[in-house]
Amino acid sequence: MTPRRHLIALLLLFVTAPMATLMAAPPPPVLGALANATYPGIEEQPVTLHDGVWEGEPYVEGGASRPRVVLVPGFRIVGDLDGDGASEAVVMLAATGGGSGNFKHLAVASRAENGDATVRAVAPLGDRVQVRYARIESGELLIDTVEAGDGDAACCPGTKRLRRWRWSADTLDEGPVTESGRLGPEDLGGGITWRLTHLDRDVAIGTYNPPTLVYDQGKVTGFAGCNRYFGSVAEGEFPGGLETGPLGTTRRACDPDAMALESDYLRHLDTVFRLRVGTMLFVAD
């Protein structure tokens, strides 16, 4: 190669490298943008969230019951759904009204040049559907759910399903659904360590030494806040039902706060009768 050709090759290198940087795929929208985006296809008119919430007018003038749409906390999946090299974000929204229904929807959004979230498609997921796992694989949105099957009450779904969607032409199209059994104690996951985050739904637990639970072949063990505990658990009479046996513990003494947390946790655990999946919720009497 002549020196002139060397010079041309170097010039091409310096010109094309910045162009490649400029053409990099934009990132997906951030959670803050998604919490303030406009979502069509949920109510009769598109709804614009403010800090993750939209509320409509009361159904009856002066009444407390009104339509409400919220961005489901903790649910944001990122991946390339259309094969263009740029990642989209998938979020879940829950719509409630005057009844007991909790209608969930999935939404695909991309990032606008100004950083806002542009919602590209919305599709219904269903009423009181519980989500176990969600991911994007090979351009397909896959969600493992627990839903009401034959004979299940709407409050207590027990059928596990794998559902799949593909996004094209600004529509989110659902594909074939695969059933994968019934919800039971084994869905606690053999060997997985669960950490307590809340008691009584609204009472948050600190991150320092929280109680834990591990399930393995009909047995539960874990840390209760001060002592180790152990016991048995079996399938209950209805979907997701649990029957816990007597719990035993070691006999250490700890500071009063740790002992109070342990007492509350074991009392709740002893009365658990139902398992809901997702972030794993145990419902007690």
Written description of the protein model:
The protein has 285 residues and is mainly beta. The chain has two domains: 152 residues, no CATH class; 99 residues, Lipocalin, CATH 2.40.128.270. The chain has three helices and 22 strands. The strands form six sheets. Strands 13, 16, 17, 18, 19 and 20 form a six-stranded antiparallel beta sheet that branches. It is globular and about 60 Å long. The N terminus and C terminus are likely disordered.
N-C termini distance: 83 Å
Gross morphology is globular
What Rg, in angstroms, do the CA atoms define?
25 Å
Helix-and-strand structural type: mainly beta
Query: Strand count, sense and closure of the main sheet?
Result: 6 strands, antiparallel
Count of helix runs: 3
> Which segments are poorly predicted (pLDDT under 50) over 5 or more consecutive residues?
1-22, 279-285
Extended strand count: 22
Number of domains: 2
What sequence of helices (H) and strands (E) makes up the elements? HHEEEEEEEEEEEEEEEEEEEEHEE
Q: What is the average of the pLDDT values?
A: 84
Helix content: 10-25%
- Percent in strands: 35-45%
In short:
This protein is mainly beta and 285 residues long. It is built from three helices and 22 strands.
